[in-house]
Amino acid sequence: MLNLLVKLPPESCPKLLHRVVDGVCGREPPQMADYGDTWSLDQWLQLLDSLYSLFRLAVGKKISDEEVTALLAGMGNGYRETVMMVLRARQEEIHQALVERTNSVSSATLQDFDWKMKLALSSDKISSLQTPLLDLHLGVQQNGTLKPVYIEMNREELQMLISSLDAANKVVLQLK
């Protein structure tokens, strides 16, 4: 639906695109009232959704200029260049907004941790168990208060936790 952008006069395009980026960054987005004579409500919503998606995708996934240009194939060179100009000019700002949005998913932060290994030799049901267990003690700060979290894990649960943390670390490194 990015091809709807060509209905706008080329001289008005940068202003709209910068306002869309403002919306991506959490500031005031463009208003339909300013562009109501150009697009219907349905077209306006489709265009905004497409532009928001384009800016988030291009910056969030670090898409090359050639790939972005390929996504903009349905519009003229002037419009493509304008979109690319706005994207390049505000790329760092969009990236910062995406990181802040991701960080705001949870306000809890890990402040401290401690761990110890145990070997469960038996239980009330089994006389010889021989199961290694990990006791993990986390100090999590949420809304200014430190809350203790205690977790006991067997070998399989520990492997799943390590795999999840590795995956999360890879995502964080890609965002940098």
Q: What can you see in these coordinates?
A:
This protein is an alpha+beta fold and 176 residues long. The chain contains 6 helices and 3 strands. It has helices at residues 13-24, 32-35, 41-60, 65-71, 77-103, 155-175; strands at 109-120, 131-142, 145-153. The protein has a 3-stranded antiparallel beta sheet with strand order 1-2-3. α1 crosses α3 (41-60) and α1 packs parallel to α5. The model has no long low-confidence stretch (mean pLDDT 89).
Count helical runs. Answer: 6
Mean of residue pLDDT values: 89
General shape: elongated
Strand order of the largest sheet: 1-2-3
Question: What structural class should be given to the helix and strand makeup?
Answer: alpha+beta
Strand content: 15-25%
- How many strands, what sense, and barrel or not for the largest sheet? 3 strands, antiparallel
| Spatial separation of the terminal alpha carbons | 30 Å
Element string (H = helix, E = strand): HHHHHEEEH
- The helix fraction, in percent, is 40-55%
Question: Radius of gyration over alpha carbons?
Answer: 25 Å
Number of strands: 3
Uncertain spans: none
Gist of the model:
The protein has helices spanning 13-24, 32-35, 41-60, 65-71, 77-103, 155-175, and strands at residues 109-120, 131-142, 145-153.
